[in-house]
Amino acid sequence: MQSVHDLGFRAQRAVLQNGAADRELFEYVFGGDNTLLALSFVLNIALAGITILAIAYLGRHLTDPRSKAIATALMLISIVSISSYTGLTSGLTLGVVEMPPGHPAAGATTAGQDGVLTMWGRYLTWTFSTPFILIALGMIAGSDWTKILTACAFTITMCVTGLAAALTTSSLVLRWWWFVLSTIFFLVIVSIILVDWTAEASATGTADLFRTLKLLTVVGWFGYPILWALGVEGFAVLDVTVTSWGYSILDVITKYVVTFVAMLYIVDEPDAITGGADYGTSMPGLDPGDD
């Protein structure tokens, strides 16, 4: 099994050395007949910006430290997204990857380069944003930090192996093996949400809210591996633009919609959400504001 360092080196070579320059990819997306593809990036930048401002406004009167912590996690989802989608828009996190023999898109060309357009920056979005989604969900469910951090570790591994699947050019079999590994890690996360956190939310008193959030999140998350399999990186049934819009719509549901649903509940600071003055302190009775 490759080390993380080896995987990173291969990713750098596959994307930065074999791919077109940032300027060429930017012109390919924004200067040609790819307006719809470009809009799938710009839409998320706009929505992420609106969501950040909305959280700041809605949370301006929060006083409970636990409510503030959940709101911060929700805001960081959009902060990561606006940064990552800016990378896609600028061409910085786009690449052209030549598919291995036997792949339906083998022999394709993009922007004058051999290969297909790979939006590897999306994996950066998911790697850094999904842990914050899980932190918010876990805290709302009332889970302990061991379970929350375990879910975060699995989601990072899921995204990294998904990136490996997208960038593997040596073997079609290995591309799909990385995809299978990523899917296994994904199912572990789903089981934590549907089984452990659902039970904990019932005990905590946030069952109604958590039911809505888990449906939006889990149903939306199942769309990602399906899109990968049907998109240009998998069976190439869907073209790059359709795949990108699919990912963007799923991001809207699992990030911004989930954020607003959760935030509208948190701003009222119900007893099931609040942690009290001692929350987050190492000494009972110490107000965090006194630090």
UniProtKB/TrEMBL annotation:
Family per similarity comment? Belongs to the archaeal/bacterial/fungal opsin family.
Key words, A-Z: Chromophore, Membrane, Photoreceptor protein, Receptor, Retinal protein, Sensory transduction, Transmembrane, Transmembrane helix
Sorted alphabetically, the Gene Ontology cellular component annotations on this record are:
membrane
The protein's name in its UniProt record: Bacteriorhodopsin
Specify the domain of life of the species encoding this protein: Archaea
The entry's localization annotation reads: Membrane
The record's listing under SUPFAM superfamilies reads: Family A G protein-coupled receptor-like
Q: Which residues cross the membrane?
A: 36-58, 70-88, 123-141, 148-170, 176-195, 215-238, 244-267
Organism lineage string: Archaea, Methanobacteriati, Methanobacteriota, Stenosarchaea group, Halobacteria
Identify the Pfam families for this entry.
Bac_rhodopsin
